[in-house]
Amino acid sequence: MLANRRLLSITKSIIINRSSIIHSSNNFNKWNNSNNSFNFSTTASIQSSNASLNVSPAPQGILHYLTHADLSKQQIYNLITLAIQHKYNVKYLDTKSGQPLLGKTLAIMFSKRSTRTRVATETAVTYLGGQPMFLGSQDIQLGVNESLLDTSKVVSSMVDGMMARVGSHSEIVTLAKYSTVPVINALSDKYHPTQILADLMTMHEIFGPQPKDDSSYVAHLTHPQETLPGLKVAWVGDGNNILHSMLVTFPKIGVHLSVATPKGYSPAEDVVKIAKHEAAKTNTEISFTHDPKVAVNNADVIVTDTWVSMGQESEKAKRLKDFEGYQITSSLAKEGGAKKNWKFLHCLPRKQEEVSDEVFYSPISHVFQEAENRKWTILAVLDALLVKKSFD
């Protein structure tokens, strides 16, 4: 009898508690539905049809590296000279960094595959004494099951810097907007700034004073402003993020740029507008054509890139057809009238339809020097953002 009373008491308690939980949950749902500021989305794009989100951007004054359109000529030069000095110090003098980033972490969040950028970044962070934390597409929900806003606020609260390789450029902008730590653009569909720094550093090494042998280095003895202005670069390829980064960078420092893209593959109009504005201030020549031979005329450097980027695989057959005649060859350069001692650059990975073996593996090709310089330029960006906290 006593046991039955206890069982009845326990049953009533469970029913009462369950009723309280349901009542509380219903009250929360009613409150939540009546308060639009708490309608957060967990998708890649923030949905806020009824009211704006009650989320403030990060405080102003945090330094980010998203595009050279944001930097001055002098700031770009500062990054190049810093990269050159690091290369000399580390590779030729075996100078230690003093580990200024000891105890600090850089989150490396890549939604796309990477070889040069990842290796360059991880080794650069390690040299500075920091901890690189690689987060690939299988490791982190970068705008997949969690919004970019949420990812930015969460990750930036735990690390000292973020480097992200994303899809749309708006994604890196969103990460930076809500991040409480510096954000570095490792590649977006619109810009690839660290690659262009490596290109400029390589061009400085090529056209500046030359060392006596491979065991010495002299690039640090001459400022890039003495070697880069006046050079002519010919771009033969797609109107992609590499070209966009060239367009917002080269005119600022007086590097002439001639562009050849197939019809339908021209660079974005807003980027071209920036380039023309900067070119007018520095008296730099920017030209556009659909004829590769016209573009390479009188060129010091000829540059190309992949015709089929990641995410464009379904367009491969069409693109290969559209880019017929755009392969970089010795005959193209000769017939177009490139300078006798012209040089070749490519950001890699390379496919044979883009450039012949004859050019790619020849002495005029500096692609592997260019690839190595990704490390030194990324090291310079990290040093500026996380150690010096200034591009000036």
From TrEMBL:
Record EC number: 2.1.3.3
GO terms for cellular component: mitochondrion
Residue ranges of domain Aspartate/ornithine carbamoyltransferase Asp/Orn-binding in the record: 230-384
UniProt GO MF annotations: amino acid binding; ornithine carbamoyltransferase activity
Domain of life of the native organism: Eukaryota
SUPFAM superfamilies xrefs: Aspartate/ornithine carbamoyltransferase
Keywords: Amino-acid biosynthesis, Arginine biosynthesis, Transferase
Biological processes, Gene Ontology terms: citrulline biosynthetic process; L-arginine biosynthetic process via ornithine
Keyword GTP-binding: no
Pathway annotation: Amino-acid biosynthesis; L-arginine biosynthesis; L-arginine from L-ornithine and carbamoyl phosphate: step 1/3
Listed Gene3D superfamilies: Aspartate/ornithine carbamoyltransferase (3.40.50.1370)
Protein name (database record): ornithine carbamoyltransferase
Protein source organism: Diversispora epigaea
